[in-house]
Amino acid sequence: MMRPYITSLRAIVGREALRFLHQRERFVAALVRPLVWLVVFAAGFRAALGLSIIPPYQTYITYETYIVPGLCGMILLFNGMQGSLSLVYDREMGSMRLLLTAPLPRGWLLFAKLVGSTAISILQALVFLAIAAAFGVTTAPLGYLTVIPALAIAGLMLGALGLALSSFIKQLENFAGVMNFVIFPMFFLSSALYPLWKMAESSEFLHDICAVNPFTHAVELIRFALYGQLNLPALGWTIFATCAFMAFALWGYDPARGLTRRKN
Amino acid sequence: MTPGLSVQNLSYNYGARKALDDVTFIVEPGAFCALLGPNGAGKSTLFALLTRLFTTASGQIAIAGHDMTKVPRRALARMGVVFQAQTLDLDLTIRQNLTYFAALHGLSGREASNRIDASLDRLAIRDRASEKARSLNGGHRRRTEIARALIHQPDVLLLDEATVGLDAATREAITTHVHDLAATDGITVLWATHLTDEVRDTDRLVILHQGRIMQDGHAGTLRADASLQQHFLTLTAEPA
Question: Does residue B83 fall inside a structural domain?
Fold first, then answer.
């Protein structure tokens, strides 16, 4: 009974993996971006920004250490959006049609696609953590293990967001705008680059936005997991947002709504 | 007898524009049915509905007796599709492409592998199975897509302008192949095209124009003494 589900899941994840192997430039680009932030941006900011001791940290930390979870989040965020872009492209090119005519529930097919892209995001984030460690930005050894489930949940959330967006974007050309209105606000209005209390000092309003931004919670989930700790509120928020984005995606891909409906 | 493909009172609108207006036709099992229509006749919309890319509340579709609204997965499982746009992953080999598709239909391991071999044999491309799709010419890519659509042994094969962009000889070869599938394997074929030379006199012919069925019958009978090209042009000519 379950066999077609497992077979299809394996195939879809396998295809994502093969596709990823064929696009090594994309892999390098996805790593260079956070590394530039870590090495260049953080060096400049270290002097300007004073950090106090906040959980999960038990001592004063360097700014580099602070932004590592945010940069992991950045990798997941960019991959989620890139996945969304490739879905819109697939839809225009037809391979999405092939997927959607498989005799399985659409929700399952989309979920399988999400699992595939998330697995690759996790791999990239782990490689990034390894390079960061080579630069001397390390965490507790156990943290490298406990961070994996956190990366998985955060990756699923951002992948689901990409999936939801892709169903509402009718043409590739509209994509750039959406990236600007999603990636930048999500990243900058979060705890990725500065702790929320620091944000509150400059503007309560901005702080409130950051506090409800699901990306903040994804980053905090990763941050705590890197020290072997579970941030329950962040976990709750992230799961809630994942379900909400997935529901949007399912609605967006509902055949009764007309996925490829286009006025010629 | 259960028809291979049955379309009843199907309508679809894009906003105020009617793309399909009360379309009804039935294709007998093992018949080759050409769906002929000029660009914009509604062929693509019909294909999107037949493959459940989207659905409509007005009208019914049944694939080998399975209702697309009530048991969509059973209907999709009995259907093979060759889309107008090419849908091969060019970075993968032919075999990898077909294995991926087989898995989407729940087939894996030896069973999938055997069926893929049989399917590739049927389209005479098994010797190229380990080549990347990118290295194939347009004709071979199409053949691969047809082979792929047959892996799960469908009752109905839908092809949407499958010969677009191919040269005359390749077009002829592929048209013949698909006719053979209907004749020898008993597969019900719906062949959408805007090219009259792909239709044979013995084929079932449905002419779609401006979202409506204009004629439905045997190609030879419908065209009578005129060439099909002439017949088609007269029928679909815009009123001056």
Answer: no
Please tell me the distance from the alpha carbon of residue B99 to that of residue B93, in angstroms, as a whole number: 10
**Looking at the 3D structure of chain B, how many domains does it have?**
2
Please tell me the distance in Å from B202's CA to the nearest CA on chain A.
Answer: 31
pLDDT tens figures, A15-56: 888 888 888 887 888 888 899 888 888 877 776 666 677 788
Interface predicted TM-score of the whole assembly (ipTM), two decimals: 0.85
Q: Are residues B132 and B224 in the same domain?
A: no
Q: What DSSP string runs through A102-127?
A: SSS-HHHHHHHHHHHHHHHHHHHHHH
- Quick one: closest CA in B to A22, which residue? B91
Given this model, what pLDDT does residue A263 score? 39
- Pick from A24, A2, A6, A65: which is nearest to A195 by CA? A65
**B112, B129, B153 — which closes off a domain?**
B153
Q: Does A52 touch chain B (CB under 8 A)?
A: no
CA distance A29 to chain B (A): 20
Does one domain contain both B11 and B66?
yes
